[in-house]
Amino acid sequence: MSAKLGTAILAAGALLMLAGLIALPAGFGPHADATALALGAGIFSTGALFLGAGFYVKARALGTLQVQEKRTGTKSGRVKRIKCEVCQAPAVVLCAPHRTPLCSDCLVGHYDPRSCGYAPLARKASRAASASR
Question: Do residues 90 and 84 touch, judged by C-beta distance below 8 A?
Fold first, then answer.
């Protein structure tokens, strides 16, 4: 299943829901017909079911795409270096409330113990790297 199939199912569901909404007014008014109301509601419900199925198919296609990316290794294995938001130097901490990466020089000017909490950006060495030393 592909994402295009999911898009087609989404479109079919939207059209069925529109058809159901168009058929609903036939069930109201002075010459109301209960079968027309039931038919419109049924068509609308079927469209909603198709819409949900379309979202499901698209999500499954997206999940399999990510699994294939992991297997083939199309993404580069390089680590993205986070830069300081103020001076563009390599960042060492992240101000959690502001979501701001900061270097050690800019940290001094940003420091506010009442509102800011800091998390280090350095990562631990992997077990394989530490075992080889």
Answer: yes
Nearest residue to 40 (alpha-carbon basis) of 57, 69, 18 = 18
Taking only the tens place, the pLDDT of each residue in 65-84 is 665 555 555 455 555 677 78
> Residues 6 or more apart from 124 whose CB is under 8 A from it?
none
CA distance 128 to 74: 23
- Stretch (H or E) spanning 13: helix 3-23
Q: What is the mean pLDDT of residues 88-112?
A: 81
**C-alpha–C-alpha distance, residues 119 and 109, integer Å:** 17
Phi, psi for residue 95 in degrees, rounded to 5: -75, 110
Order of strands, sheet of 93-95, starting from the edge strand that comes earlier in the sequence:
100-102, 93-95, 118-120
Q: How far is CA 77 from CA 69, 82, 92, 121, 129, in A?
A: 12, 15, 21, 18, 16
Residues comprising the chain, all counted: 133
* Segment holding 95, helix H or strand E: strand 93-95
- Can you tell me the distance from the alpha carbon of 22 to that of 16, in angstroms, rounded to the nearest whole number? 10
Alpha-carbon span 9 to 2, nearest angstrom: 11
